[in-house]
Structure formats: structure tokens, C-alpha cells
Design a protein that fits this description.
The complex is a heterodimer of chains A (about 190) and B (about 425). By secondary structure, chain A is an all-alpha fold. Chain A contains nine helices and no strands. The longest helix of chain A is centred in the last third of the chain and has 26 residues, at about 165-190. The longest helix of chain B is centred in the N-terminal third of the chain and has 24 residues, at about 60-85. In chain B, helix 3 packs across helix 4. Chain B has 14 helices and twelve strands. With about 425 residues, chain B is of the alpha+beta class. Classes of the chains: A mainly alpha (about 190), B alpha+beta (about 425).
């Protein structure tokens, strides 16, 4: 009972923090500390480049600061889903611009060229290779892959973040994995 | 390459991606964000002026007539309602206020899943509510706080943890921290929790009736809180505004036996100071704070290897070290469970079974339902269907009333049981 009630008490505290963040800078600051690392990490996984990840992370949190007062969510889960949705939108928007996409691909290609024998590792591709393959997917699919495999989000969370049904996410992921496998095979064969 | 979801997860877990943030960026963004936030707070949202509204209404005959009709209707209704209005018999804020005048409180009740009786005493030692003594006792454990010192005793392990300054104790045992925090707010399940519940709970309902035994008028409240899959029932006395009884469920519709049933509340009773004296039982092992902190740090290392780095073989070594060094701590059960999970990830199911069976046999009172789930899974993987079925059923039994039946591991255990019983 006490473990469960402790969780109730903690959860109520977290939800209370979200509500207070609408008007209290201290509460917003606490939420920032809780989520900065996660959002930055998500951006690195989506954008490959840490400096660009910092820029997008900044854009996200500044938008939170402008919009938190009208945020309709009531719980920490609501806040987390909203935050990830904002981040996914901003990272997709960044990548969609063709010149930026080319810049990312160029960086990835350079990283692949300078990589050691990672591509020969039978356990799987290295990060630049995997990233290049992910980048060939549609932006929404890239988001699903990042949330599922890099952020370990469950299907329910992913569905809320991208505003889709859970069943749709499951089916889509199945198709994405097939495409990703093909892209990876092309990349590895191309280099060989 | 990879065949499925799990294969790709394994590949990702082995990647070396540097996601370390720049602390300067973190700090400067925080300042910027809070500055933007302050600016937004100063600039009120745009309001449509009354003059604009008046212009819109007066533009056409229809809007003028409709507005006039609305005003008359509101006036009539307002007069009617004022006549009928009565001061509500009870409001949650009154309970919050009433609790602030309490100096001692004794609660008796039962904790699930075995309906173990508990008793909880609290005495405020001066008018400043930050200073109090408390004792929480069941047949399994005793928790005592006296001033700033605290003791937490577990019967089954015959161990005592001592905290010299309970306010600073980061590593405080969870149940001690829970009861201490509850007491800090004001006596048990205080106004703060109730006020938040009322603001955010779903289907808050109040009903008034006379208590058959005492003849006193009582208000009965039920509500649920979906984010935590919880529901509540409590009774307040309309005259004194104080809580008389309460129940808590780990589902949203008050089904089955409650996780906790606080049966009686006694306010401002005389409590002897001896209740808050803790005598270390004979033969009990005293675990001091330093040892507890070292244990926590070691367990944390295992957790980082497992969760962050996915280095399961390395994690096993750390969890094994924890189990060998601290077999008397209840987290030793968690360490054995984690060893079993790690072996499962490495697909060494026989070793997984060995570790998980050990957890179940050596810590029967503290076995998590998840331990049974992973045991069932390991038996399933090795084709031992009967044992798998037994383990999944034990998962349901130990998890009932504690874990959400719609989520892991109870939901998954039921699915396995369905498959196994179909094959029979």
C-alpha cells in the first residue's frame, strides 16, 4: 500500500507542477530541468549534429515558454506528449528544408567515410549508416523510429505524440522496419 | 541485418552516440526561456473591448432582441436561484481547515493484498506543524520518527535502518518518506491531496446520509483519478468536517477489495510518549546510512548498465555483487529479479530461471508480480509450459489490487495464460 500511495503522492505532485508552470516560473524551471536532457537527446537522434540539436532544443523550449499559459493538459503525461510533439514537428520542419537535409547527409557521409571497421561489424550498422537509412524515410516515420527505438516510447505514447491511433502506429512501424532494412541493405551494399 | 523490432532495439542499444549536452547551453537556454515566460505573463491576452461587442450587438435587430431576451432570462433565473440557494453542508476546504487544528491522530486500518492490519500514530510536538513524532506499524514492519531521528524495522529480515536527520535523508526508505511527507503536510491524507483530487479527479460525487450506527450526518465522497488508475471513497463528518473512514483502490471503479482501508480515525487522543520510543530488537542487524547509500549507489550502477547502456552481462555482475553484499535488504530481491531479466535479454533462459526462482524462494514476502512474469516468460521460452502457467498465475495473484490490470505485467500474464490454456 505505501509504495502505491507514495506513487500517488509523487504523481499528484508532478501533475500539480504542470498546472503551476502555467503561471509560476519556478515550476516551469523544474519542468525544464526534468525534460531538457530528453529533448536534447531526441534532437541529436533526429538531427545527427549536436549544434543543430541545440538550436532546435532552444526553439522548442522558447515555444513552451510562450504557450504554457494556454496549455490545456492537466497531467505530466499530457505535458510530456505535448513537448515531444513540438519537438518532433520542429525537427521534421528542419529536415524538410532541402538545403538542410543535404547538409545533414553530407555530414553523415563524411562520418561514414572516416568510420573504422564498424560497417563490417556483423552485429549491425554503425550510427552514421543507420542515420542515413532513417533519413530516407518520411519525416513522420523518422519520428516513430526515433521514439520507439531511441526513446523507448511505447505505442500508446507514440500514438498520442503524433496524434494517431495506437493500432495505426503498430502497423506503420511494421512497414517502416521493412523499408529501413531495405535502405540499410542498399547503403551497406553501396559501400561494399 | 535485423529481422524484427527486438533486433533493431539491440542494434540501437549498442550504438555509440554522444548525446551529452553542453552545460553552458543548458544554463543559457533556461535563462532565456524564463525571461520569455516572464514577458508573456506581463502581456495579457488580447481582450475584445466592450465597445466592439456593443457595436456587434447593435448592428442588427435580431442580435439586439436576442441579447435582451438573454438578459431577462438570466435575471429571472438569478432571482429564482437566490431564493433556493442554501449554504452547502460541507466543502472540502472545511476539512482542510479542520485538520489544521489537530494535535494527535491515530488511524487503524488494513493494507492489501493480504489485508494486513496497520496502526498509525502522529503527535505534533509543538504548535509548529513541522515538528512531530510518528509511528507506523504492521506485523511486517515498524517505522518510527522522533524529532529528526527515524528508524525503519523489517521483521522478516530483522534489520533496522537508522536515519540521523530524517529531513536530509535522500535515500530514505520509500514508505518512511511517504508517511513522513504525509505527516508534514498535516495529519494523514491532508487537504492538499484532497483539494488536488477534487480539482482533477473524475466523477467526484458527494452524497449525504445519516450514519446508521452513530446517527450523525455524514458526507460520502467517491472519485477516481485516471492518470494513476486509482479510485477513492471517504467519509467526512458534516459537523466536525473531519474524515472518519477512507478506502483506496488500484483501479478506477472501486472494484474488488481496496488496496488500503483506513477504518477508524481518532483525533486529539492522549498518546503516550513511549509509543515513539524505538527499541532495537534483539539480534536485529542495524544498517546505517552510509551502508544504505553505498547499496543504493551500487544498485544504481546496475540500473545504468541495464537501462542506459544495455550492457546486460556487465549489469549481471553488479546486481550479483549487490545480492551477495546486501542480502538482507529488500532490494536484494530486485537484484535477483534484474539478474533474471538480464539473462533473459541474453537469451540464457536456464540461468534466468535460476535467478528468478531464487528471488521467489528467498524473498517470498517481497516478490514483485513482475518477477513471476519474467519467470513465466523464461519457462515459456524453454518449453516448460506447466511451470510457465503457474508462474503467470502467481503474477496475477501477487499483482491484484496493486498493479493496473490493463497494463504490464498483469495484461501480458493474462495473454500468456490464455495461450497456454488453449493449448491444453
Amino acid at each position: 500500500m505505501v509504495d502505491v500511495m507514495a506513487k500517488v503522492e509523487n504523481q499528484i505532485g508532478s501533475d500539480d507542477l504542470v498546472l503551476r508552470a502555467r503561471t509560476e516560473a519556478g515550476a516551469l524551471g523544474q519542468l525544464y530541468e526534468m525534460y531538457y536532457q530528453r529533448i536534447f537527446r531526441f534532437c541529436v537522434h533526429r538531427l545527427f549534429n549536436k549544434q543543430i540539436a541545440e538550436d532546435v532544443t532552444s526553439t522548442v523550449f522558447l515555444q513552451v515558454a510562450r504557450r504554457i499559459h494556454s496549455f490545456k493538459g492537466r497531467t505530466e503525461n499530457d505535458f510530456r506528449n505535448w513537448l515531444y510533439a513540438l519537438t518532433a514537428n520542429h525537427t521534421n520542419a528542419y529536415i524538410r528544408k532541402s538545403s538542410r537535409r543535404k547538409q545533414l547527409l553530407a555530414e553523415v557521409a563524411a562520418a561514414i567515410t572516416t568510420a573504422d571497421t564498424a560497417a563490417d561489424d556483423p552485429s549491425g550498422p554503425d550510427w552514421p549508416t543507420l542515420y542515413a537509412a532513417i533519413l530516407k524515410l518520411k519525416p513522420k516515420h523518422q519520428t516513430i523510429v526515433t521514439l520507439r527505438f531511441f526513446e523507448n516510447a511505447d505505442f500508446e505514447q507514440i500514438a498520442k505524440i503524433i496524434n494517431a491511433r495506437e493500432a495505426t502506429v503498430r502497423v506503420t512501424l511494421h512497414r517502416i522496419l521493412k523499408k529501413l532494412k531495405n535502405h540499410l541493405t542498399e547503403t551497406v551494399d553501396g559501400r561494399a | 541485418m535485423f529481422e524484427n523490432d527486438s533486433d533493431l532495439k539491440k542494434i540501437v542499444s549498442r550504438l555509440d552516440i554522444d548525446t551529452t549536452p553542453n552545460p553552458d547551453h543548458r544554463d543559457s537556454l533556461r535563462r532565456q526561456m524564463l525571461s520569455v515566460f516572464q514577458q508573456t505573463q506581463k502581456t495579457p491576452p488580447h481582450h475584445t473591448s466592450w465597445q466592439t461587442i456593443r457595436r456587434i450587438i447593435m448592428k442588427s435587430k435580431i442580435t439586439k432582441l436576442a441579447t435582451a431576451a438573454m438578459i431577462i432570462l438570466i435575471a429571472v433565473l438569478g432571482i429564482t436561484l437566490l431564493d433556493n440557494a442554501a449554504t452547502p453542508a460541507w466543502a472540502i476546504e472545511q476539512t482542510v481547515e479542520a485538520l489544521e487544528n489537530i494535535e494527535t491522530l491515530v488511524i487503524t486500518g488494513t493494507d492489501s493484498p493480504e489485508s494486513i492490519p496497520f496502526k498509525f500514530w502522529i503527535k505534533f510536538t509543538d504548535t509548529n506543524s513541522d515538528s512531530f513524532d510518528l509511528r507506523y506499524e504492521t506485523e511486517k514492519q515498524i517505522v518510527v520518527v522522533r524529532g529528526t531521528r527515524a528508524w525503519a524495522y523489517r521483521h522478516y529480515a530483522n534489520t533496522v535502518k537508522i536515519y540521523e536527520n530524517v529531513k536530509d535523508s535522500e535515500g530514505m526508505m520509500r514508505d518512511l518518506r511517504f508517511w513522513y511527507k504525509i505527516a508534514q503536510l498535516t495529519p494523514w491524507i491532508t487537504g492538499k491531496v484532497f483539494a488536488i483530487l477534487k480539482a482533477f479527479a473524475d466523477d467526484w460525487q458527494e452524497s449525504y446520509r445519516r450514519d446508521e450506527q452513530t446517527g450523525q450526518e455524514r458526507v460520502f465522497v467517491t472519485c477516481s483519478y485516471k492518470p494513476l488508475s486509482s479510485s477513492f471513497w471517504f467519509v467526512c463528518d458534516v459537523d466536525t468536517k473531519l474524515i472518519r473512514e477512507g478506502k483506496y483502490w488500484r483501479n478506477t471503479n472501486r472494484q474488488g477489495p481496496p488496496v488500503c482501508h483506513a477504518i477508524s480515525f481518532a483525533y486529539n487522543e492522549q498518546i503516550s510518549d513511549e509509543i515513539f520510543d524505538f527499541q532495537i530488537p534483539e539480534g536485529a542487524k542495524v544498517i546505517d546510512r552510509k551502508e544504505q547509500e553505498e547499496a543504493d549507489a551500487l544498485f544504481e550502477r546496475g540500473e545504468k548498465l541495464f537501462h542506459d547502456k544495455k550492457q546486460f552481462a556487465e549489469a549481471i555482475k553488479i546486481y550479483q555483487q549487490f545480492y551477495e553484499k546486501y542480502p538482507d535488504l529488500n532490494m536484494a530481491e530486485s537484484a535477483l529479479m534484474m539478474i533474471g531479466i538480464c539473462y533473459g535479454r541474453l537469451e540464457q533462459y536456464d540461468k534466468a530461471i535460476e535467478a528468478l526462482e531464487k528471488a521467489v524462494h528467498e524473498y517470498p514476502e517481497y516478490t514483485f508480480c513482475a518477477t513471476y512474469f519474467y519467470l513465466g516468460n523464461a519457462y515459456w521460452q524453454t518449453g516448460q509450459k506447466d511451470r510457465a502457467l503457474e508462474a503467470f498465475k502467481n503474477c496475477l495473484i501477487t499483482g491484484e489490487g496493486i498493479r493496473d490490470p490493463k497494463k504490464f505485467p498483469l495484461k501480458n500474464a493474462r495473454e500468456y495464460i490464455r495461450k497456454l490454456e488453449k493449448k491444453k
